[in-house]
Amino acid sequence: MDSGPDKACTRDFSNAEMGVLAHLYRGEIYRSTIWRTRLDTTTNWAVVTLGIALSIAFSSPDASPLPLVLVGILILFFLLLEARRYRYFNVWRARARWMENNFYAPMLRDGNLHTESGWAQVLADNYLHPVYHISQATAIGRRIRRNYLWILLIQTAAYVGKLMVHPTAVGSLTEFVERADIGPFPGEAVLAIGVFYVVSWTTIAIWIARSDAAKFRSRGSSSSSMG
Questions:
Q1: How many other C-beta atoms can be found within 10 angstroms of the C-beta atom of residue 7?
Q2: Band of the pLDDT at 15, cuts 50, 70, 90?
């Protein structure tokens, strides 16, 4: 039995194997769809809690802007939870996409069932030893870029607007900073933390976007790994 480097790297699937692969693909699509729905759920939670904070803060001119600050903690929690869910979603999505690129697309293009066998080994290894295909930081950056950056910007705009118009129109920068005071914390510190809060998440989103673009360019169409 030849096991050297010249051994053929292609194989033909039987009808039974074709049926199994079709069901496997359907299963991966179903699991990725379920986890995609779970991503939408956490985004909806973030939007709803921000809406509640907006309603409370703008309910009257004398209402405190503090809910708009505290809701940022909940939004951060939902972001981390959604990033974790996205890593699971990416596992199922990557498997389905791997089969599309290496099995279904060659079959449709060439008109036969003769496909490269190397891709099947990669897929089998992934089932035997499942791992995340992306890091937590990458997942966070992608979710910020897709959804949470807009939520954070709306939260920031609402907070600044609250300080500017309630209880009356702000008359000076000093008055604006004083209105940001929270108990023993001076307004300068609160605003500085707010700026850091927005800039840090924006920086992460931009950094991950560039990292993804560079990775996809270098990977090309000859990648031998999933994710």
A1: 8
A2: confident
Q: What is the domain range of residue 37?
A: 14-219
- Residue 95 belongs to a domain: yes
Distances from the Cα of 137 to the Cαs of 95, 146, 167, 211, 218, in angstroms?
21, 14, 40, 11, 20
Q: Quick check: is 204 in a domain? A: yes
How many domains, in total, are found in the chain? 1
pTM, two decimal places: 0.82
Confidence of residue 140 (pLDDT cuts 50, 70, 90): very high
Residue 8: is its pLDDT beyond 60?
A: no
What CA dihedral angle connects 62, 67, 69 and 74, to 10 degrees? -170
Find out whether 201 and 144 touch, Cβ atoms under 8 Å.
yes
Is residue 85 in a domain? Answer: yes
The encoded tokens of residue 106 equal 């060659």
CA dist., res. 27 & res. 43, Å (int): 25
Q: Is residue 39 part of a domain?
A: yes
